[in-house]
Amino acid sequence: MAKPHARMQTQDSFAPSLLDHSLRLRWSLPVLAILAALPVLAALAGDTFYVGLATRILIFALAATSLNLILGFGGMVSFGHAAFVGLGAYTVAVLMQSGVVSAWAAWPIAMLVSAVAALLIGWVSLRTQGVYFIMITLAFAQMLYYLVVSLRAYGGEDGMALAGRSTVGAGVDLGSDTHFYYATLAILVTAIVLITRLLNARFGHVLQAIRENEVRMTAIGFPVFRYKLVAFTLAGALAGLAGVLLANQGSYVSPALMQWSQSGMLMIMVILGGVGHLYGGVLGAVVFLLLEELLSHYTIHWQLGLGAVLLGVVLLAPNGLTSMLRRKGPSV
Amino acid sequence: MNTILILEQMLNGLQFGLMLFLLAAGLTLVFGIMDMINLAHGSLYMVGAYLIASIAQATGSFWLGLGLGIVGAAIFGVLLEMTVLRRLYQRDHVSQVLGTFAILLMCNEGVRLIWGSQPLSLNPPAALAGPVELMTGFYYPAYRLFIIGVGLLVAGLLYVLIAHTRVGMQVRAGAANREMAMAMGTNVQRLFTAVFGVGAALCAVAGGMLGPLLAVQVGMGESILILAFVVIVIGGIGSIRGALLGALLVGLVDTAGRTLIPPSLGYLVGPEAASSAGPAVASILIYVLMAAVLFFKPRGLFPTHG
Prior knowledge:
The complex is a heterodimer of chains A (332) and B (306).
Chain A (H helix, E strand, L loop, with lengths): L4 H4 L16 H21 L3 H23 L9 H17 L5 H23 L4 H21 L9 E2 L15 H24 L1 H11 L1 H7 L3 H27 L1 E2 L6 H14 L6 H19 L3 H15 L4 H6 L6
Antiparallel strand pairs in A: 1-2
Helix pairs in contact in A: 3-7, 3-10, 3-11, 3-12, 4-5, 4-6, 4-10, 5-10, 7-8, 8-9, 8-10, 11-12, 12-13
Chain B lengths: L1 H33 L6 H19 L2 H22 L9 H23 L15 E5 L2 E4 H23 L1 H11 L1 H6 L4 H23 L9 H16 L4 H30 L1 H26 L10
Antiparallel strand pairs in B: 1-2
Helix pairs in contact in B: 1-5, 1-6, 1-8, 1-9, 1-10, 2-3, 2-4, 2-8, 2-9, 3-8, 5-6, 6-8, 9-10, 9-11, 10-11
């Protein structure tokens, strides 16, 4: 696919267009190496608690990254993203209760359920604009939340416990926290690589162009609604996968996964990390959850500190933390 | 029998709807004039309720608590606006969500720090404790009637303020087109601080009224905040008239759903399952209502902008 505009931005023909996103391997590979070594380091330190915490952070990084795909790159401020996370989690739990324990069967089904829900919700919601879009996505998420609360057979308000983690076979035992950590890491890395490919392809360029100027893209003749709907559905499926992992990690699902505050938290991770930055969701999830962990260690009133930090970020770093890193100089 | 039940539920719906209106009125103006998403609006409701409950406990007088609490909440709202929120007006919605969510967290934790995690109790004034016979055989709690009266009175005052005063005209102008209102000489900044203070006071009124019925506890603001958002989106952001209609609709649908759905569901799935699913189904109904309104009227029932 030729990208003529890629060369119009700058004289340097090797420089990517503003719509392209680099994996920044110079930074991300060392980080990945550290992450890969983490279980070993934790075992050496004799404290495996951190593997569980790291897994949780990686899962939320996946969920936040999926939200960033539509919020950051598509300009769709969805306030109901936790619904898709919860749907994925509940699908795995329900399947496991009825005897489907294989990850190869249950996980794709869970992603499909979340994707179909996102397709339907997106189809209605994307007709609205701005604040109304924020509120209608919230409305649908709340509907699903109360639906789950009303399902007595699946635990209702109390949620339900899973018999165990999904099985994979081939010598991988997800019941082991270390194996589960590596599986989560592999999924997150795969998702980020695929999202980068998607963003740098024609589809991603169109999506980002729609974010910049929807009216113009419509006028040029792009089927704007269809592009947005596809992105919304993809993000829903990825969020469903994050839900699958969450349900597996804790072997427990509850309606709390789908509460509006969860959607808010995902949104805050994205904003904190940087809206429309490739690693915005990851960075936001890491900072948010580590901050929560750290502050709750020192005081039961940790929310006060968390609120103060978030407020500081909003007032001092308008475009999230990645923009502060970037200010030091352009890196490719 | 049945007409009494329906009448009672309609009054309950009216009462809940009017309280929602008090919350939604401030929210819709803030939203409409400054195009600002304020997730901390529910915190004003919580702070107001806590102030009223603790002053009422300390002095033993509900009325003194109500009066001082409303003033305190208004001062709190104005301070919040002048120190933090003012900096967020020019920012995009996502920044506003993050900033006001941070304030919400801090308010919740601050309240927990000051008053502890135990809910406070707020007793209605003794004069309003008993029921009133509205019709032969139809008793209704006097306090709930009082709430309806206060709600109607405040709604009427707001209507006069918004529709028949100079300040109200400026508020409406600001909601319809902020730049134009500024160009015509309205001091939107000062106007907005005032609107914010009034909004906070209305929140406190609602908090004080609902305090004896619901629990005064941390997190009380969140669930009702979402309902208030639903109300203003149904009504059309920036429209007081829309907020009133939306609030009454939501109040009636919510109450009707809670009482009428379980019996009718009972025929289908059995009484036990129906009683557990009933409240959830009623809550779903509200969001179905909102989605349906937005599907047919994507800018709400009474769009104010352009």
